[in-house]
Structure formats: C-alpha cells, structure tokens
Amino acid sequence: MATAAEAVADTAAIKERFDGVKAEVGKVLVGQDDLVHRLLLALIADGHVLLEGVPGLAKTLAISTLAATVDCRFSRIQFTPDMLPGDVTGTQIFNPREGSFSIRKGPVFGNLILADEINRAPAKVQAALLEAMQERQVTLGDETFPLAEPFLVLATQNPIEQEGTYPLPEAQLDRFMMKLRVGYLSNDDEVRVIDRMAGEGAAPRAQAVMTGAEVLDARRAMRQVFVDDKVKRYAVDLVAATRDPAEAGLPELTNLIEYGASVRGSLSLVQLAKSHALLAGRNYASPHDVKSIAPDVLRHRIVATYEAEAEGRDTDDLAATILAHVEVP
Question: What CA–CA distance (Å, rounded) separates 9 from 222?
Fold first, then answer.
C-alpha cells in the first residue's frame, strides 16, 4: 500500500501528465480550455460524455484532438437515419464455402468512441450502444465480447434541428456521466482560430503524449482520492433536492421538476469530484469539487415540466437554484 508521500508524488505526476495533454490539445483548439478540462475529468472518472451545441463549434474537433493525444484506438461513428445496429456493434458474416459464421466487429470495439450526431440515428441504433456503455461488452449472436479498457463514448448532438432526429430517451441520457453545452467563442478567440486554421502553412495537429495504460493508472489513482463523509452527503443532498425540492426547502420548484436525478447522479458527482481534485494536484476531494461539476452532471438528469418551460426556466436554471440553496459543508 502506497504511503502518504508516495500518494502525493503520484498525484503530482498525474497532474503534470494531464497538463501536458491540455497543452497538446491547446495547439489545435482555441478558447475551449474548460471543455477540454471536463473531457479529461470524464476520461479519468471513466464516464461517457454528451456534447451539445450548434454546428461549427468544434465539438467533433475537440474529441478527435483529445483522442490524438492518447495512444489508443479511436473510432468515429457518423450517425445517420439509415443506420443499422450492426453498423455500430458489428455482425455475423456467413461463409457459404465453409457453412459457418464469422464475427466482424464494429467500430464500437475501440477505446475512445466518437458518436457524432448521435440523435440522428433511430432508437434501435442508439440502443445498440446501451450494452456497450453500461456493461462494457457487446453481444453478437450467441457470443459476448468484452470491450478493451479504457473505453469511453463521447457523443455529440445538435439541439436546434428537429427534422430527421431521434431524441435520446431518458434511460440512455442517464448513462452519460456529463452533458456539456458548447457555446460560441469570444471575438478575440475567433480571430485566433482564423489565424491558426486559415493562415499560411498546414493546420496544427496534436501528437500522442499519453498511453492507454497511463489513463488506467490515473483511474486507479482517482479511486484512492479521499472523500470525506460530509462531501458524500453534500453530493447526495444535491441529488435529493432534484427529486423532492419541497423537502430540501425549495417548494417553488415542486411544479417545475417532473423527475430528478438517479443514483447514477450521486455516483457521478463523487467520481468527478475525485477527478477534479486529482487534476488540481490534491489527493482529497472538497465540496468545491462537487459544486464545480454539478451543473454538468445534473442538467440532463432533471426533467423539467411544461410549467417550467412556459416560465422559460431550463434545467440549467433549476440546477443553479438548487446549488445556490443547498448548504455547502
């Protein structure tokens, strides 16, 4: 068992390693430091991420650039309305000469999976990801194949188009540890993008600076990060407030929230708080770690009522109200 000094040294080494990843991604991306930080949190916490934003905001570029910095297998799946489940998971191929079936594995058999425009595929295709995301395995015919570690699904979706899209069901949304909203860059950052991408010479590209084994090492270190019972209670209190606002002292939200977060919400808060502490160079998690990532964990787990929509209050607003009211230990 590692001593306290060894644990601190490991934490410092991991922070330095991931700072190197941020620097490498920063050679390509401009003004997306917070997005990259949260993607790294998910990578350490072993949780899938859903990115939402209008077209042209570098959602796909952010994911592919991050994947380029990690020396492991990257797969991109472009979801379309005519896709079949086998296009994701793979299928059985019949060999008439031998009279037998062989397995052809699909793109989900990778380490970092980009599910681009996931809401453009029908329900059967979306469901094909469920077993892979939750059980980390894929069943083809009568055989079940475990997925390699690390395994992470990073999905994107466009919130403004309705035609030709299939909204993700709540059960599948809950399997994403975080939902990140990608916004527009500042004018200064947009000028930097033009200089970098439309200037002379080739566009910059990221290089691999981390291995899959080092990602797994970081995950093991994350599990060793200390979380006080008060911090755990704070995470549970936040999630409980989404389920029963009146009990939490927020009766005005009772008619605005249809359903609250599941137990996965509490687990995600604690795991991401550990990752947040690790990237800050600490081997203990604080309430601030929980609070800083709570909006990304709760926004897709709160189901707002029609009354909330009529009042112009979205899930981000409801989560912010809860965070402002629940006492921080």
Answer: 14
What architecture does CATH give domain 225-325?
Orthogonal Bundle (1.10)
pLDDT at residue 9 in the model: 58
From the options 2.30.30.230, 3.40.50.450, 3.40.50.300, 3.30.420.40, give the CATH code of 4-82+109-217.
3.40.50.300
Instruction: Decide the pairing of beta strands 90-95 and 100-105.
Output: antiparallel
Domain ranges of the chain: 4-82+109-217, 225-325
pLDDT tens by residue, 101-139: 778 889 999 999 999 999 998 888 888 888 888 889 998
- Residue for token pair 């077993």: 131
**What is the rounded CA–CA span in Å between residue 273 and residue 296?**
12
Element (H, E) at 162: none
pTM, rounded to two decimals = 0.91
